[in-house]
Design brief:
single chain; 478 residues; mainly beta; Serine Threonine Protein Phosphatase 5, Tetratricopeptide repeat; Immunoglobulin-like; 5 domains; 8-stranded antiparallel beta barrel; 4-stranded antiparallel beta sheet; 15% helix; elongated
């Protein structure tokens, strides 16, 4: 025992005192831990000497020599220097063995002979050890503990490799038919019968075979063996129907709602099937499919039943005629003479623009401006019509009658003078209209439309009645 000679010169710490006590009690693992903690916190030669004694007791001559060398480094002038150097030479001269341990994966803690002696190192591990029979124990988190008996010859090096297995279960998979394949947790499939190793926890295994229904197993591994047997059921002959994947679409096949979003389509058995497609933005549409084996059929409703995108913004152009059916009092000089002469605007052509917002699949709000001629007994004048219009779609599809109504203003913007110096004159008049029309969706962006509107405006003794007949096209901007 070399530690007692230097102990008085150095103040003991709690780890050192605990290490000495455990050494004297023969608990070498705890002694090793405490003395290592003492050296890490406050390196002293006395702690290094005691730790070398621990290593000598458990036969780890290499680590014992390392601690003796550390003790001399920490206290070069120790009175026991000659004794320590003599012990180092004695260790070097002894006939020892060299043990080399590698593991897969590396980083395993290595115990020699007993876990009670503490961790001797981690792999890759190499130490000088006394000859004879030893037990090597490798431990790493998440892997099963491995023990290996080894006999070391004096003066020789011995290497051992320890493959470590993850903690888990051995899953054996069998299936009928025998040509099936098994897929574990989405990994590439393997032929069955198969032996698979799984880690602790939950897993999913799927057994597949062409033209058979796949069979899925939920595996909870807590250790041990897990035998699985799958008897696959043949798939009834049939094919697939692919469907449009529009938002809010509802698809029923033979009265049963199906998921139309599958990339491969909806599987149908051989035979006739009735498919109905509807949704919040389209008219109901029904068709039949005569399915044969291994056939794929694409089914999509015609554009006539596809509704209008909402919300959306669109721009329209249109032209037509403004038919004056009753005396129209527009312009400050318009009048009806006692003789019945009508100095008032008459029937003319018109053209304009509209910008609309499809706020709901069947309701749009529009702002419109139209140019129109104002022929009368005065020279030809021109006017503008401004109005706001609401359009309701009678049907949900893309080809539908519409009902509309709105309010606005007529305005004279050009009134040339006659030879006698008179003209129609400036002026405005309120207007209100109701109408019907037809709207046809050509594709996702373009539509055509016709409108017939009855317009009430200012007359002489009562409302004037105009009839607007318009046709045009619309394009979706957003």
């Amino acid at each position: 025992m070399l530690a007692s000679a230097t102990a008085a010169a150095q103040a003991p710490d709690a780890h050192y005192l605990a290490g000495v006590r455990y050494f004297q009690e023969g608990d070498y693992k705890k002694a090793t831990d405490e003395l290592k903690a003492s050296i890490a916190a406050h390196p002293t030669s006395k702690a290094a000497l005691y730790l070398s004694n621990v290593y000598l007791k458990i036969g780890n001559l290499g680590l014992a020599k390392d601690q003796l060398t550390l003790a001399l480094k920490l206290e070069p002038s120790t009175p026991k220097k000659a004794s320590i150097e003599a012990l180092i030479r004695s260790i070097e001269g002894r006939s020892v063995s060299r043990l080399i341990v590698r593991s897969t994966p590396p980083g395993a803690n290595i115990y020699l002979d007993s876990k009670g002696l503490g961790v001797q190192g981690t792999t890759p591990f190499e130490q000088s050890v006394l000859p004879g029979a030893h037990k090597v124990i490798a431990v790493i988190d998440g892997y099963e503990e491995v023990e290996r008996d080894v006999t070391l010859e004096a003066g020789e090096s011995t290497s051992i490799d320890l493959p470590l297995r993850t903690k888990g279960c051995d899953v054996s998979v069998n299936a009928t038919p025998a040509t099936s394949r098994a897929t574990l947790d989405g990994a590439p499939p393997v032929p069955v019968p198969a032996a698979l190793r799984v880690a602790l926890g939950d897993h999913k295994l799927v057994v597949t075979n062409e033209k058979f229904e796949p069979k899925e197993f939920a595996i909870r591994c807590v250790g041990g063996a897990v035998p699985l047997t799958a008897a696959l059921v043949p798939i009834a002959p049939g094919g697939y129907v692919t469907l449009p994947n529009d938002a809010g679409l509802v698809v029923t096949v033979d009265g049963r709602i199906v998921d139309a979003t599958a990339a491969t389509g909806v599987r149908l058995l051989v035979g006739r099937h009735v498919i109905t497609i509807t949704g919040p933005n389209r008219a109901p549409w029904t068709t039949t499919v005569d399915m044969t084996e291994d056939r794929t059929v694409a089914v999509a409703p015609p554009k006539t039943v596809r509704g209008f995108k909402a919300p959306a913004l669109y721009l329209g152009v249109e032209g037509g005629a403004n038919l004056v059916l009753a005396n129209w009092n527009l312009g400050q000089n318009a009048f009806v003479a006692q003789s019945g002469t009508k100095n008032t605007p008459g029937t003319s052509g018109m053209a304009g623009l509209r910008i609309g917002a499809q706020v709901l699949p069947r309701l749009a709000l529009e702002a419109e401006v139209h140019w129109l001629g104002l022929p009368s007994t005065y020279p030809f004048a021109m006017g503008l019509s401004y109005d706001a219009n609401a359009v309701f779609h009678v049907f949900r599809g893309g080809w539908t009658p519409v009902v509309e109504g709105g309010l606005g203003v007529y305005q004279v913007v050009s009134a040339p003078k006659a030879s006698n110096g008179t003209n129609l004159g400036t002026g405005e008049a309120f207007r209100g209209h109701l109408g019907i029309g037809y709207l046809a969706r050509l594709n996702d962006r373009f539509s055509v439309r016709v409108d017939v509107r009855d317009v009430l405006s200012a007359g002489f003794s009562g409302p004037a009645d105009n009839l607007e007949i318009l046709g045009g096209a619309e394009v979706v901007l957003w």
